[in-house]
From TrEMBL, chains A, B:
Organism: Ancylobacter oerskovii
SUPFAM superfamilies noted in UniProt: GntR ligand-binding domain-like, Winged helix' DNA-binding domain
Keywords: DNA-binding, Transcription, Transcription regulation
Coiled-coil boundaries: none
Domain (HTH gntR-type) ranges: 10-77
SMART domains reported for this sequence: FCD, HTH_GNTR
Any Pfam family matching the protein: GntR
Keyword Transcription included in the entry's annotation: yes
The protein, known as: GntR family transcriptional regulator
PANTHER family membership: TRANSCRIPTIONAL REGULATOR, GNTR FAMILY, TRANSCRIPTIONAL REGULATORY PROTEIN
Top-rank taxon, per record: Bacteria
PROSITE patterns to which the protein is assigned, alphabetical: HTH_GNTR (PS50949)
Length: 225, 225
DNA sequence: GACGCTCAAAGTGTCAACACTTTTGAGTTT
DNA sequence: AAACTCAAAAGTGTTGACACTTTGAGCGTC
């Protein structure tokens, strides 16, 4: 059921896209599963046109694969493909870190440090790992890079895929405490304006996250879900 | 006029896409120009559906921008956007170079060196800068990286944009001789299995290409074409 | 001349029907 | 039981018409 109330001017195609994206994230459209235009049109009570629009857009962000005349499918990432994704993160987030080291003003850097310190205080008070938000740190670094293309590549494709995989993996024990200290090391390198070190530390950080995730061995069990 | 003869099974939408891509590369659909569905449908003698399919696909590779209910437009890159593109190349091609340094077999590396040497001999014999194909070298490095995501990011988006800009720029005096010697330095670093150096040299190579291109000052004249 | 309003024309989004391709499953043969 | 055939069903691609939104020409007012 597509919400047709126009809280803001939008098309059915875009609404269908949002809802299909949710379905993918939630696993209702699982990796490898068929994307059936006609069935979705019935489900959402729209014609096939907006479904096609949404599917094309999902294809554009790599969440769906499609061949002429064949049923579209939600992408199913192999272990190798996931490894490739993490390498892309190393390349891009590492480089973003370099750009930040070279470009971030002292004032903005002070604000980032203050925000990280606040998160640490929250953690000490609450003992909640969520206070050490992994994604917020990365988000801040990437957005601070100032490279719009880099930002849109990460947020436009790669993070959608990782988010989908996250759901598939289910709960992975977090490494928040380790991640937090790695963040601090990265920040110190940035503060010292050592771009090589900052980049290298960010890459290592992501490499460890990749190893942590892929060593959980759950990817080989994806097919059983 | 869309060629409807089925040399291979394909859809009208895909054929329209190919032809629109050509039009963009040739400047017939110039950056900033309106993409009018109805007019293109008449021109290609198909219904608006395949046009929409093609436009969605062009949007997926960032060559077209679109808002609901508004005319799509061929993207028009600002100077900053082009700079961002080159930075992306630095990040990704630099990283590809690192991967190659770490992974390429001695045999494959020897073949690459031989191919480069052949190009040099051709150049000495012909005096034709085309013998020192800039793109072939990069292509070989990127494909040899073994990271499918990286390859598709470069070939799926970034190079389309650069190709479009190349046409817009018109003829830029080539720096083939300099580029060639830089290629050799990169190869030597790869051969020495010095990933840091290889990456750094590739980045510098691309940075110089960027500076060379953007210093031609032609980008500020784009609007006059 | 500049600005604002009106409204028809132009253009995009959606729909349902038809055209075309692929998949499915029943029936037959080995 | 396995393999093959083939028609029907299912699903995708395309079309033209209608619904909806945006644009711009024409007109009136200041």
């Amino acid at each position: 059921m597509v919400d047709r109330t126009a809280s803001e001017a939008s098309t059915l195609g875009e609404r269908v896209f949002e809802q299909m994206l949710d379905m993918i994230y939630r696993g209702d459209l699982a990796p490898g599963s068929v994307v059936n235009e006609a069935a979705l049109a019935v489900r959402f009570q729209v014609s096939r046109g907006p479904i096609r629009e949404a599917v094309r857009r999902l294809q554009g962000i790599q969440l769906v694969t499609r061949e002429p005349f064949a049923k579209a499918r939600v992408v199913k990432l192999s272990r190798q493909a996931l490894a490739d994704l993490y390498e892309m993160r190393e390349a891009l987030e590492g480089y973003a870190c370099r750009l930040v080291t070279e470009r971030m003003s002292d004032q903005d850097l002070a604000e980032l440090i203050a925000a990280l310190e606040t998160a640490r205080q929250d953690y000490l008070r609450d003992g909640q790992p969520e206070s050490l938000s992994d994604f917020d740190f990365h988000s801040r670094i990437i957005r601070a890079s100032g490279n719009a293309r880099l930002i849109s590549t990460l947020y436009g494709d790669l993070y959608h895929l990782l988010r989908m995989m996250r759901r598939i993996k289910g709960h992975v024990p977090q490494r928040k405490h380790d991640a937090y200290s790695e963040h601090w090391q990265i920040i110190r390198a940035i503060k010292a304006r050592d771009a090589d070190l900052a980049e290298s530390l960010m890459r290592a950080h992501i490499r460890r996250a990749a190893a942590h995730t892929m060593d959980e061995g759950q990817l080989t069990d994806v097919a059983s879900r």
